[in-house]
Amino acid sequence: MMLRRSLIATALVTTIGGLLVAQQNPSTSGVQQERFGAREERPIILYTLKNSHGVEVRAMNYGGIIQSVRVPDREGKFADVVLGHDTAEGYIPNPPYIGAIVGRYANRIANGTFTLDGKTYTLPKNDGPNTLHGGSTRTFDKVVWESQPLKDKNGVLFEYLSKDGEEGFPGNLKLRVTYVLTDSNELVIDYEATTDKATPLNISQHSYFNLKGEGNGDILDHEIMINADRFTPVDKNLIPTGELRSVKGTPFDFTKSTRIGSRIEDNDEQLVLGHGYDHNFVLNRKGAGMTPAARVYEPTTGRVLEVSTTQPAVQFYTGNFLDGSVTGKSGHVYKRRYGFCLETQHYPDSPNHPGFPNTILKPGEKFHQTTAFKFSTK
Ligand code: GLA
Q1: Is the peptide bond before 93 cis (omega within 30 degrees of 0)?
Q2: Going by CA atoms, what residue is nearest to atom 3 of ligand 1?
Q3: Whose CA is nearest to atom 9 of ligand 1?
Q4: What does the pLDDT look like over 15-38, one tens digit per residue?
């Protein structure tokens, strides 16, 4: 033990792009870290969180990307249940936002514009007429965050200062995101932010799950329960119409656990517009705090994923735009619907919908949201 302690306290010095970088490998909390690449002359560091059940989560400071999540099936056999790449370079570029933190405004802002305190802001359009996931260049998924292992928890802290005017958004926005892996097989993601000017903020995590194991076919046989009586129907640009529509009697009713694929090809206007599920579900909640959002079960492996959150909604996206053009881990080709996302967040385009829950963060306020992904078997 003494020896191990002294070894883990040893600082390693690495040269990256001409810079001297001191690394601790691993940290005192037991979190391992390794150099995974470099971007803009800054090291990309991959952190490995492991718990007492052998569950393992790897995440990097580039885009806060969750690179792998290894969990057992009902026989105790481990598999990696998130899509991703073996190298950091694999994520540059990353058009499907695999594994990343997305923002400053996750999801869509119509026509790349919004008005705040009488001023109209223009954002880069990167999704037809819309701004998707914060813009095109310096968005949360495409930058190297400051990072360090947490001292008192099995986790990692990512910090990023999104500067005033970045991608057209107002205010210096200071972000802190932590990923903690608990001994109850929960990955807890905590987001905090402050700003010096009023700004829209919608932050989410864009991991694609496949509980059979990444690359192992599509997700249509997974069964999902979504704790939502209503969803936000969209127009042809996937912008909410403003209506909160009841899921009752529609293919959007997942209030009882249902196969993802059972109605996905129905001739339903909303499914056609979304090319499948790509919709924001309004969570049923009794007051603030953590609320169950969704529960997914994969019958062949018995793996279960439960998502809970403080956020008001979850975007259920069935990987409709994956088209086989991305080759991921171990050469696996990610085809249509090989992964699903459960992106907890605010409703899309809220800055242009005064009736939707508020997404404007003001100076002096503290933004705080939490989402947990819990893994088990049945
Ligand atoms: C979100 C969007 C989808 C798609 C993916 C990334 O889930 O809602 O339409 O853009 O991100 O491909």
Answers
A1: yes
A2: 278
A3: 278
A4: 444 444 444 444 445 899 999 999
